[in-house]
Amino acid sequence: MADSYLYRTQGTPTGAGKKATASAWVKYCRWSLAAGGTGGIFEVRNASTTSTWDIYVDGNNIVFGILDSSSWVGSLAGTPKLRDNTAWYHIVAIWDSTESTDTDRMQIWINGVKETVFNSTTYPSENHTNTALAATSGYQQQWGAYGYGGTSKWDGYMAQCVFVDGLALPATTFGSFDATTGEWKPKSDGEVRSGVTFGDQGCLINFSNASYLGYDYQTSDRSGTTNDFTVSGDGIQSQDNPSNNFPTISPNYMPFDDPIFYPDIGNLYCQSQTSASTYFGGAATMGLSKGKWYWETKGYTGWNGGAIGVFSDPQNSADNDRTCGYNAHDWAYRSDGQVESNNTTQDSGMGTYADGDVIGTYLDLDNNKIYWAKNGTIINSGTGWTITAAASTTHGFYFPGQADIAGSGGSYFGLNYGNGWFKDAALTGTTYNDAQGQGIFKYSPNDGGASSFDSSAKDFLAICTKNLKTYGG
Fold it and tell me: What is the pTM for the complete model shown?
């Protein structure tokens, strides 16, 4: 993410070009209805692009392509789509040209299910040798990019990326269905290691080392063969992962004059508007109905004015270019120091904020209160604002959000829902987790446990699926 990808020069492969498997967990941040755009998941290719082994997304379509002598000898393209930009997907591409049945020679599996319907298919001949997988020099392996040198990068998140050189392995090597929920879940690194012989050019990238995201963990102690990758770009480690999903800014709430979303920064950075006539800036992909929740919003250079709080009906705001605070149950702390709800502002005495300030929002849906902090200091002497119970709002949920109030274009926002970074930089110095050990924040989600919220101590939590499952939302 953040305009990044991993690459390494391929050495001498094991598999003679006839068998290989790639597995990756991905969260795609492009607008799910957008046309165009290419993002690479994994590939092996040379600089002249005469031979490749590619798995990538074109628009929202998954494509698995094999190129030899500048001709497509194998391709599965079309129907499988990544429509949900709030969810993690598990993608497995299997290559085995030794299979007698042509449809078994190239396979795509998504979340444990084999895809069988495509817009177009080309199957290789039996025992075809792919040059990219058999080559001894001049080829580059890449995670998160399509095109030599990272021409088209992945717009979103990636986790547990595995390439197996010389074996065609089933999707069950990397994931399994949960017996209770029926959901497809990732296997641990240890489980994958125990079932895989990676081959000379294989790898397991788990992104666990924030200072070197390209480390190959084929073995837990990194003994033996390790095919480390070089990081190109910012390369940020996120708390967002397949086992604990965090919200992003939803690009599905789009007014006529679209805000600018940045999928290459994980949809946690946006420009609130593109013209002087629009105000909407974006709502989170996850709604909240109960519990206590915390998140952080930061303004950037060029920020003309912001409103930070909660939307009760983000689609209504998007359709009508309405700022946060306009609808009956919206609540927003504005950069001019006022609090707005139901299109009515109150001179709250809370003070202004500007570029570079970090606003913490504390949403207590057990007691129907909202609080804010500026750069870690609770505002309004800890006296919260009473809000309507979530059950009485339009959809029964509040959505974290932010919007422009200047009406002159160009308000920039960075969000940290506990992911551990703003815009394209990881948090540094002292950071904080919530009371359950989730999320990474610049400031304390509970004000250090102080009695700061209407003379009470409250534990506010990061918005993520682990907390939502346990504490509601």
Answer: 0.93
Single-letter amino acid, residue 231: V
Concatenated DSSP letters of 373-427: EETTEESGGGPPEE---GGGSSSS-BEEEEEESSSSS--EEEEESSBSEETTEE-
Structure tokens at 155: 């717009």
Count of residues for the chain?
473
In sequence order, what are the beta bridge partners of 17? none
Distance in angstroms (rounded) separating the CA atoms of residues 272 and 413: 7
**How many CB atoms are closer than 10 A to CB 321?**
20
Q: Are 295 and 463 in contact (CB under 8 A)?
A: yes
Tens digits of residue pLDDT in 144-182: 999 988 888 898 899 999 999 999 999 999 999 999 889
Q: What would the two tokens of residue 420 be?
A: 């551990």
DSSP tag of 62 = E
Look-up: residue for tokens 């497509």?
72
| Tokens read off for 90 | 């598990």
Cβ-Cβ contacts under 8 Å for 74 (sequence gap 6 or more):
64, 65, 66, 95, 105, 106, 122, 123, 124, 128
Tokens of 205: 């990238």
